[in-house]
Amino acid sequence: MNPSTPGLPVHDQLPEFTQTHVHQVGDTIQPSHPLSSPFPPSPNPSQWINPFFLFGHKRRLKENEIHSVLPKDCSQHLGEELQGYWKQEVDRAEENGEKPSLKKAIIKCYWKSCLLSSIFIFFEECTMVLLPLLLGKMISYFENPKGSNALHDAYICAAVLSACVLLWAILHHLNFNHLQRVGMRLRVATSHMIYHRAFHLSNLALRKTTTGQIVNLLSNDVKRFDQVTTFLHYLWVGPLQAIAVTALLYMEIGISCLAGMAILIILLVLQSCFGKLFSSLRSKTTALTDDRIKTMSEVITGIRTIKMYAWEKSFVELITTLRRDEISKILKSSYLRGMNLAIFFAASKIMIFITFIIAVVLNNRITVSQVFLVVMLFETVRFTGTLYFPMAIEKVSEAVVSINRIKDFLLLEEIPLHDHQLLPSDGETIVDVQDLTAFWDKESGTPALKGLSFTVRPGELLAVVGPVGAGKSSLLSALLGELSLIQGNVNVHGRIAYVSQQPWVFPGTVRSNILFGKKYEEDRYKEVIKACALEKNLQNLKERDQTVIGDGGTPLSEGQKARISLARAVYQDADIYLLDDPLSAVDVEVSRHLFEQCICQALKDKVTILVTHQLQYLKAASKILQLENTEDILVKLPLEDYSKGQVGCKTYKNYFTAGTHWSIIIFLILVNIAAQVNKDIYFALCPQFGIYILFVLYMGNEMKTIDLNWYLVVYSVMFLYFRFKCIYHPFGITRSLVLFYILVRSSQILHNKMVESILRSLVVFFDRNSIGRILNRFCKDIGLMDDLLPLTFQDLIQTFLLVIGVVIVMVAMIPWTVIPLALLGLIFFLLQLYFLNTSGDVKRLECASDIFPLSIFSPGTPTIQAYKAKQKFQKLFETCQDLHSESWLMLLTMSQCFAMCLDVVCAILVIGVAFGALILKESWTPGQIGLVLSLTLTLMRMFQWCVRQSTEVNMMMSAERVIEYTELEKEEPWELDFRPPAYWPDNGMIAFNNVNFKYSPDGPLVLKDLTVSTKPKEKVCIVGKTGAGKSTISIDKNLTTSIGLHDLRKKMSVVPQEPVLFIGTMKKNLDPFKEHKEEDLWNALEEVQLKETIQGLPGKMDTELAESGSNLSVGQRQLLCLARAILRKSRILIMDEATSNVDPRTDELIQKIIHGTLVQCTVLTITNRLSSVVDSNRIMVLDSGKLEEYDKPHILMHNKNSLLYKMAQQLGETEAAALAQRAKEVSLLQRVVIKVRPVTPHASSTF
């Protein structure tokens, strides 16, 4: 929702074409943020958040019930602000001949916010240092209660202690909330810049990155900013507090304190080394994650091809291997985190032990109050120095790696600015090209276009023809300003509309795809629909033009997508139309309609440049431009459904048991309990406990000082004994490492299960779920499970056991404290229940809304750039970010209120204990007072942190979302008990018996009562009107239910309508899993007329292909897919419009391959080119999913009542007569071949 106009639904603020990309809030008015009103409530959010808690406690929250973001937190404001500083930094670097630094731009943008938070954190840590001093003063009163004004001073100390406790709670949460918001703003701003940059990348730059990398940047890298701001200030607070504590200790106990601080410095140096390792591991991990996400993105995009070729197992193995390499780095990082935590829990004990040993050696005499003061000061510096400081090093190291990756992306080459929208002074619209030579990549040395000159004026139609790879699409790219010009001039004056060779539609309604942000005008809309031959197709759709299109254009055929793309262009009413072969994907009747009614009639007054292979239309063109082959290959969101409330026990069970057996989990729990009993009840508390024992048994109430020799006898025995047990038993550090190993392994196994589940799922799953939604599971959710969940559980377990230990000691020393502690626990439990019910819903909304429209990248970028619609899609992204920020900020505010309540309750306990000790001073000894007060202060931090960490397992929703994808509905088994023989099928005969087929259970039938069969080795062409259901026969075969899917699919080859290629070498795309000899690969390339082209490249077969093969023309991609199919040497070959984007000469050569090399195969050719069908044995004509005709070509071509005859007439009488004569000649030739053909050997011995 746009925060600048709070209260309006999303669909009232965005262009219509974006409505289905963002979550609709319907007619319900979304509440504006309380702080955005002219008279906002108190800054304390509890006043306006409590009603929200009550509301969410009663029922499931809806997305439109979350408060909108404040204007200062909206994506547009934050992104443009940081973009301004980044532009200044780039300009400065260019002037000085330096590389720009994104870190400097971020610092300039956010230094004021960081300065404000530094003030908060400074006073917060000052109060933490002050608390031990006040505690020491109070204990000194009990040592000498008869001094003058002693009781008065004690009450003052108690009052100041209480004020400091409350002040710390306020400062801590103000600072934490502020820092979290700064991190969120930085994350949103950098995401905005990444998305903005993606729309301005040149074609060459797009080939240097991938959708997977962009997804990783938006999902994982920017998330580091949420964490780094929280700990950033401890880089200077840690050393500063260590200096202050050292000074205070020196004044209290003298030079012996330096020994303990020396231990701290050693630990800080050690953890700083860990920080460097974190940075190195993070760099390696992100590179591996990029590879994994890139591969997963390709798998999702090419899932149909993968299933057709039965490559699921191979891709599962490939992704699992990538994941294994990634996990090895993540485990090392986790082990370092475990070491840091172990150092944190042991640091203060070691420092205290060394300090008192030195004090013994120096014969120092220390009072009881001084000992408690020393212990509490060391506890204070322990948190800052051994927990927050190393966390700051770790998070800053990771953030620096992410910043550098984002900087590298932002510095990729940008599209040169070309303004074709402004008309010249005389108002003339024109396209004028003179002596044009242009490159895709200057380093390749091969121009994409060379020496072209032409001029096109309004009312003229320029037809561009040429063989595959001649540069036809490159010419249009040059007119769009996407190619690097070496020489010549390109003058384009007027508004451009562009139709790409591969039709692009975005997730939305059919109408929104056509309007593309334009205002709906009914009369013009109907004219465009009619001109683009969409009337009948829209009538067949259940929701007409309100039918929602999914990722990839489901449920539309390629021909329907092509016509919607053309209708989008026509509706724009532009001055110049660049049409990249829009007629290839439709049948001849529709093709003729589009050419006559749309191109020649609706665009008759426009500048029109048409790339085409339909040579029959050239006579109607004003000019014809024929290109020769220049070898232009380069050498190189509806909202997601979500559950309600908290994560169920089943999710926890599946998560923990994924990495190991239940017995290991139970053993680990016992190890943690045993380690805590050994370490945290006695060892961790032995300073306080030892002081109390010595005070009671040796010193008594009248003693003011402690004989440290006696103290160290007790302390040293306890220290050495429990240290010995920690070393020689599987406790201590081992438990942390084992827990990290189990949880990271759980993440790895669940990831692998999710990969296998997705590859086993039905194709309809990919039609219903966008690529962004699926990749979000593999990127964001898996990232949380890798990094944060193990750390959160480790912290929760350690803190919980420590709290239990503290409570046991307090109750053992002063039994009646069980009453306030039990009351405290009950209050915390109720608060947790109150918080979790609502926060669970908000967290689910946050997860569901964290999906950005990623499917527009790569295929849709040229269209968006041509239509100058980048700002509209940027607005869409900003709206998506704002929707996510609404849930994220609400969750942060709720967590702040929850934590504030916990701290207030703990503060009340501290205040009660402090004043209760003074009131009951006669009943308590100084040792008891010191012990209880110090433990209460420790409990204040630990208790509320333990409860908060227990709520932080809302991150388990990421595990829940991953587990959900491991339980998807599966397709039929890959293998069954019955396995066909190796030579099956030996004849290649296909039969359909009353087949009815639909894409989804709730979809319409696309094949209706189909009963037909083919003869062995027969060549059958399938034609029909566009969208008639031709493509749906590709996997149907008689008795296929008795054969496993892999056994079935491996026996046939499919060349899909939309070519699918993967990032990697040419060799990898032909033979992904190294099943063939290189000689066979070259032979296959020679069959499809690509051998000479590939041999002319410097890398030959090792030439790298860009994402989706974008450095090849569409025709070359189709030929490469055909070569891949030929390599399999299957008995059944299905070609689904496989030659729609090749020129007639190449198509003729392919027909020779079908009747020559593939003579022993049964070939089903689905095509709209009638010139390709007359060579077939029989022709199948489908209409609306029904079989209308099935006979030999010459019979149908001479039957004036046949549909095929009528379709041929659309080509013109001369062309139709030529086709009929050709069909007759082919029929005679086939009869002769049948008569003289010798008996063929067995199928198992020949191809």
UniProtKB/TrEMBL annotation:
Q: How does this protein lie in the membrane?
A: Multi-pass membrane protein
Q: Which residues form a coiled coil?
A: none
Record GO biological process: lipid transport
Principal EC category: translocase
Which keywords appear in this protein's UniProt record, sorted alphabetically? ATP-binding, Cell membrane, Lipid transport, Membrane, Nucleotide-binding, Translocase, Transmembrane, Transmembrane helix, Transport
Q: What cofactor does this protein call for?
A: Mg(2+)
Q: SMART domains, from UniProt?
A: AAA
Pfam annotation, one family: ABC_tran
Q: Which chain regions cross the lipid bilayer?
A: 109-133, 153-171, 257-278, 341-362, 655-675, 681-699, 706-722, 788-812, 897-920
Its recorded reaction(s) are: 3',5'-cyclic AMP(in) + ATP + H2O = 3',5'-cyclic AMP(out) + ADP + phosphate + H(+); 3',5'-cyclic GMP(in) + ATP + H2O = 3',5'-cyclic GMP(out) + ADP + phosphate + H(+); an S-substituted glutathione(in) + ATP + H2O = an S-substituted glutathione(out) + ADP + phosphate + H(+); taurocholate(in) + glutathione(in) + ATP + H2O = taurocholate(out) + glutathione(out) + ADP + phosphate + H(+)
Where in or outside the cell? Apical cell membrane; Basolateral cell membrane
The enzyme's E.C. designation: 7.6.2.2, 7.6.2.3
Name all ABC transmembrane type-1 domain ranges: 115-378, 731-955
Q: Where is the ABC transporter domain?
A: 431-654, 990-1209
Q: What is any one of the record's Gene Ontology cellular component terms?
A: basolateral plasma membrane
InterPro entries membership: AAA+_ATPase, ABC1_TM_dom, ABC1_TM_sf, ABC_transporter-like_ATP-bd, ABC_transporter-like_CS, ABC_transporter_C-like, ABCC4_TMD1, P-loop_NTPase
**Gene Ontology molecular functions:** ABC-type glutathione S-conjugate transporter activity; ABC-type xenobiotic transporter activity; ATP binding; ATP hydrolysis activity
PANTHER family per the UniProt record, alphabetical: ATP-BINDING CASSETTE SUB-FAMILY C, ATP-BINDING CASSETTE SUB-FAMILY C MEMBER 4
Its quaternary structure? Interacts (via PDZ-binding motif) with SNX27 (via PDZ domain); this interaction accelerates MRP4 internalization.
- Quote the protein name from its UniProt record: Multidrug resistance-associated protein 4
* Organism ancestry: Eukaryota, Metazoa, Chordata, Craniata, Vertebrata
